[in-house]
Amino acid sequence: MSEHKKTVVVGLSGGVDSSVAALLLKQRGYHVIGMFMKNWEDDDTEEYCASRQDLIDVMSVADALGIDVEVVNFAAEYRERVFAEFLREYQAGRTPNPDVLCNSEIKFKAFLDHAVKLGADAIATGHYAGVREFDGRYQLLKAEDGSKDQSYFLYRLNQAQLSKTLFPLANLYKREVRKIAADAGLHVAAKKDSTGICFIGERPFKDFLSRYLPPQKGEIRRLDDDKLMGEHDGLMYHTLGQRKGLHIGGVKETAKSGDHEAWFVAGKNMEKNVLYVVQGHDHPALTRDHLIAEQLSWISGDAPKSHWVYTAKPRYRSEDAPCDIEQVERESCEIRFAQPQWALTPGQSVVAYESRVCLGGGVIR
Question: Half-sphere exposure of 346 toward its Cβ, with a 13 Å CA cutoff?
């Protein structure tokens, strides 16, 4: 894309990353317009939601850069396309990743559609990822800064979306981004990164979820022998591999060692409302060497080759694990790992790579 006189709408969040993305594009000669998306309105209080301060920061950055900003409200779309699915998945006992849905349904669909109506040639965000055209198709790439790479959350993007997307931070490290912001006099240079799920903010997760999915008490049983260990408040409040919040303490397995090994969630029986636990991080029930993925989304439009060595991430912070991908049906595939993986969690996304290229992925069954 020729930079001069091209209009790019940048999604501004009020953070340093999106601010520097806008700055870099302006320096390259693009006509830059900022857009602040309000995606959540319920319980929008100062205690847990920083959207008001974020908007103030966006306006300050826009003023410093000399760009216009439009504020758009996608709360209805977010509730329908992201939050409703989030609740359905938790109610079914799975652990969804709303950031993946938010990217595919809001930031690169509702936002992109709105930007095109404004006459934009492309959109841009402050995501740490890259995009390039290769052999007639667009590829999603890992960011140079591996510790900040966000390609995992973008695996559902398609060719049409990537063809109109710019990622200005693709080749930058976080420390460089903060320095660029500081050198430009942007007051957000040292602003703390936001963490967690956008609509929950800093509030306790269980407290938030209980407002929409009321507690439903049930038994906690030991997987190995079905021994009753305690009581849970609801299966939706627990996820595979979870350690904290079980309230059953450690138990001395042997008189000799005297170890108090921690308990971990190892499974759920939704029909009987039973939560199963095992003791010890290395319990064999917590590891598996294969999984079935559904709701597949391949960036190129084609499934990866069978019997080819790829890598995959079964969760965002996991290491790239060598694997083989075998298409089972049109909507599902089997991924076999060279080494067993810990706590493969239904509802989470598994994302496949070939070197730095993100191929796509699916949802763990």
Answer: 13
Q: How far apart are CA 342 and CA 319, in angstroms?
A: 11
Catalytic hit among 49, 102, 333, 358: 102
C-alpha–C-alpha distance, residues 155 and 296, integer Å: 10
- CATH of region 7-205, choose from 3.40.50.720, 3.40.50.620, 3.40.190.10, 3.40.350.10: 3.40.50.620
**DSSP element (H, E) containing 102:** helix 98-102
pLDDT digits (tens, 9 = 90+) for 327-357: 877 789 999 999 999 999 999 999 999 999 9
CB burial of residue 183 (10 Å; 0-12, 13-18, 19+): exposed
Two domains, one topology: 7-205 and 287-364:
no
Rounded Cα distance between 266 and 233, Å, is 17
pLDDT value at position 236?
96
In this structure, what token pair is assigned to residue 357?
Answer: 């290229």
- 358 catalytic? Reply is no
Dump pLDDT digits (tens) for 15-28: 999 999 999 999 99
Query: Is 190 exposed, middle or buried, given 0-12, 13-18 or 19+ CB atoms closer than 10 A?
Result: exposed
| Whether residue 102 lies in the annotated active site | yes
pLDDT at 225 over 90: yes
- The pLDDT of residue 255 is above 50: no
Fold of 223-281: SH3 type barrels. (2.30.30)
pTM value is 0.93
Mean of pLDDT over the chain:
92
